[in-house]
Amino acid sequence: MIVFGARIDRDGPLFDNRAALAAAGYADEIEQVIAEVGVNKVRVALGPFLKHPTGYYMSQLQASRAFDGWEIHDGGVVYGPWLAGVGSRNKTTRFKGYKHWIIAINQIRSDADDIAEFVLQKYLPRMN
Fold it and tell me: Which domain of life is it from (predicted)?
């Protein structure tokens, strides 16, 4: 008869909550970094549309913590919806808006996995 025995040590990041804390921090930082990168993508997407930029609108673009995560917004600039093509005046004028938000959102979505993987490298040592 052959008998095998096993002993399990219950210590380390998985058992003392360090891995869970690192995973939570990782999830929070992914959202923040993606939002901050997203602000730059909106600025870059808007740039080619503007013929005589004053810089004011771009200076108001920001990422901030919201109730359930992070958001990218223009700080409530009154003509922001008009620039984006979703304002009430876009229905009554020839100007249908720029597509800078759509362009930026598509780029953010395509880059999100790479950003998450980059941020993960910071958290992996805490989980081992």
Answer: Bacteria
